[in-house]
Design brief:
Elements: H1 6-19, H2 24-32, H3 41-57, H4 64-75, E1 84-88, H5 94-106, E2 109-114, E3 126-127, E4 133-134, H6 145-155, E5 161-165, H7 168-171, E6 179-184, H8 189-199, E7 203-211, H9 217-223, H10 226-233, E8 249-252
Parallel strand pairs: 1-2, 1-6, 2-5, 6-7
Antiparallel strand pairs: 3-4, 7-8
Helix pairs in contact: 1-3, 2-4, 3-5, 4-5, 5-6
The structure holds S-adenosylmethionine.
Length: 256
């Protein structure tokens, strides 16, 4: 039998550490879930290791539990014809590389929207739900397009990934639907608004949008405002579980 080297042992220990970490509940759900196409346990473990590897290689702004929650929703749609996943807010490409691996496993395509020059000029002043003041400065989180593409080529699945560079207000109007799963991690109220106005009406029935900005008071207020949904998005206000409590929010498509 071939001897296992220290690299294998390290990888196993890293996986165990991950299983015992604060992301444990999401990891356990991911291992227990049933998907429309068989995803063997060892493949799930491989995916988790790939997530860990990406986290160690590329600066990211999310928790593993958040990415696993989104991965779970993508895999629930595995094999669906035309499966489309949208990411708004890629930064250095850490979340993008992870989403690309899961999207490829599910047989879909990933559309990545970002300025690739960071946060736009703005005069927004935010507060976290715990009252702390947060300002998102112009240019923060910059990841250049070539850098993100290189990251996805090296650590993710470039063959399913397309990149759309520019401000959301200019690029999202030409997004072609239907969209199955979208992840918004865009920090600003103005950016969240633009993403929802353009993506939410294009969700396939049963689709879902995640916002990773549920820790910001102004975004909670926007998402909880029925007038925003009716007048700007043109849809009935969805029921958003955990609004005002959770950072990662799951916004379900309108009932068909
Ligand atoms: C917090 S970072 C994304 C972090 C990334 N999802 C991760 O987990 O590593 C926010 C991103 O949103 C992008 N962004 C915010 N508002 C934008 C806008 N109006 N148009 C284009 N990109 C925008 C920024 O360029 C930045 O890359």
């Amino acid at each position: 039998m071939a001897r296992r080297g220290p690299g294998t042992l390290y990888r196993r220990l890293a996986s165990v550490r991950f299983l015992l970490s604060r992301d444990r509940a999401e990891v356990l759900r991911f291992f227990a879930a049933r998907y429309p196409t068989r995803v063997p346990r060892r493949e799930r473990l491989r995916l988790i290791r790939a997530f860990l590897h990406i986290t160690n290689q590329v600066r990211g702004y999310h928790s593993q539990a958040e990415m696993l929650a989104v991965a779970h929703e993508i895999l629930l749609r595995a094999g669906q014809p035309g499966l489309t996943v949208v990411e708004c807010g890629a930064a250095k490409g850490s979340s993008t590389a992870k989403l690309s691996l899961v999207t490829a496993r599910a047989g879909g395509r990933l559309l990545v929207y970002d300025s690739f020059k960071g946060i736009p000029e703005n005069d927004e002043v935010h507060r976290n739900l715990d009252g702390r003041r947060v300002v998102f400065r112009k240019g923060a989180f910059t990841g250049r397009l070539a850098q993100v593409q290189r990251t996805v080529a090296e650590l993710g699945a470039p063959e399913v990934s397309s990149f759309v560079k520019g401000w959301f207000a200019d690029t999202l109007p030409s997004l072609e639907g239907p969209v199955d799963v979208a992840l918004l991690d865009v920090d600003l109220l103005s950016s969240t608004r633009e993403c929802l106005v353009h993506i939410y009406p294009r969700l396939r029935p049963g689709g879902v949008i995640f916002s990773q900005d549920g820790h910001l008071e102004a975004i909670v207020a926007l998402l909880g405002d029925p007038a925003f949904w009716r007048d700007e998005v043109g849809c009935p206000p969805p029921h958003i579980e955990g609004l005002g409590r959770d950072k990662l929010l799951r916004i379900p498509a309108p009932a068909a």
